[in-house]
Amino acid sequence: MPTAIITLVLTYVCVQYLTGDKGFFSQESRDRDLVVKEQQLAQLKTERADLEARAKYLRTDNLSKDLLEERARVLLGLSEPKAYVIRGPIVQNANS
């Protein structure tokens, strides 16, 4: 009886070693995931650097009037300095 239990436990451990989440055969998928995550990290780092630069120029001690005007246009829905966007009522779908 103990031999059968030890055999079952060893079989289970071997199967998990080969096919589990961190098993031998899943190494390629983990490598692909790592490459994708590294690309996302690089993209987020560049986005963060851009946002930090914009935030630096929007502070009161170092205010860029052009950047402030651009952000105001985006937030207010203006496309050009003399143009206005008129938004209609929001209609919700009956299915949602």
UniProtKB/TrEMBL annotation:
Pfam families, per this entry?
Answer: DivIC
The UniProt entry, under InterPro entries, shows:
FtsL/DivIC
Instruction: State the coiled-coil residue ranges.
Output: 34-61
Q: Which UniProt keywords apply?
A: Coiled coil
Q: What is the top-level taxon of the source organism?
A: Bacteria
Protein's name according to its UniProt entry:
Septum formation initiator
Look up and give the organism this protein is from: Asticcacaulis benevestitus DSM 16100 = ATCC BAA-896
